[in-house]
Amino acid sequence: MSSPRTTNPVPDWIETPYPRLAHSLVSFPSKHILLVTINRPTHMNCLPVEATIELGALWKWYDAEPELRCAVFTGAGQKAFCAGMDLKQRLDIIRDEGIAHEYPSGGFAGMSNRTGKKPIVVACNGHAHGGGFEAILNADIIFASPNATFRLPEVLRGVSALAGALPRAMLLFGHHRTMDLILTGRTLSVEEAVSWGLVKEIVSQEKLLERAINYAKEIASLSPDSVIISRLAAREVWETGVSRATMRGQELYAENMLRSENASEGLAAYREKREPRWKRSYL
């Protein structure tokens, strides 16, 4: 069953209807503030392809809506912000030769490779794994609950994090920390994430969303032009290097990787709750 489109009425200061959503909720907790909640708590807020397409359209709408100045992005429940892509659906997709393998230009959750105009503050209410971590890495500010963890487990599934995470992690964390994460698939604790400069604050579940919204209000109270220009100017060096690196990863590796025996095996093992039986490398 599709989720309701919003948790409260659309205010009269919103000029155009936002895109239809089946997997996320939209609300407006204060003037100028957009709140987006992934609403698949029974699935650890993992996203099927359709949800990523919806969110990609939503972020574009957010950038174009004149009175919106800052967004807050979170997940429903208290276990996961987003556990990544729906791996069971992904296995079906890569076995169907007639279905495209690529996400929209904004990347996973419409966010992992998004430049956009306006800031997105994340209230990370639990695990941010796989694509969820890829989206987090491209957020502007992150608040996290004490149970939040961060992980790129793709090497355990026979795939790779090619939606923007690898070059972004390299710039954010440096070579050795990045290799530690991506070559082992290990979990990064929220305490480590703070010490690495990823998470701004650890906030209790009860106060997490309130803290993120209040922070967004602070941004929204400032010059919207200055916020947009300052954000884009600061990200210019980031985007120039990262986007090209991401595109090369997708151009050189993504399709062949997803068509490989090891991708099918890793995802099948996940579905069947068994250890994967890896094949010889195809590279």
Automatic annotation (TrEMBL):
Q: Name one GO cellular component term.
A: mitochondrion
Q: Name one GO biological process term.
A: fatty acid beta-oxidation
Tell me where on the tree of life, at the top rank, the source sits: Eukaryota
Q: Does the keyword NAD apply?
A: no
Kindly list the GO molecular function terms attached to this UniProt entry: lyase activity
* Keywords noted in UniProt: Lyase, Virulence
Q: Does the keyword Transport apply?
A: no
* InterPro entries associated with the record: ClpP/crotonase-like_dom_sf, Enoyl-CoA_hydra/iso, Enoyl-CoA_hydra_C
Q: What is this protein called?
A: Carnitinyl-CoA dehydratase
Annotated organism of origin: Clohesyomyces aquaticus
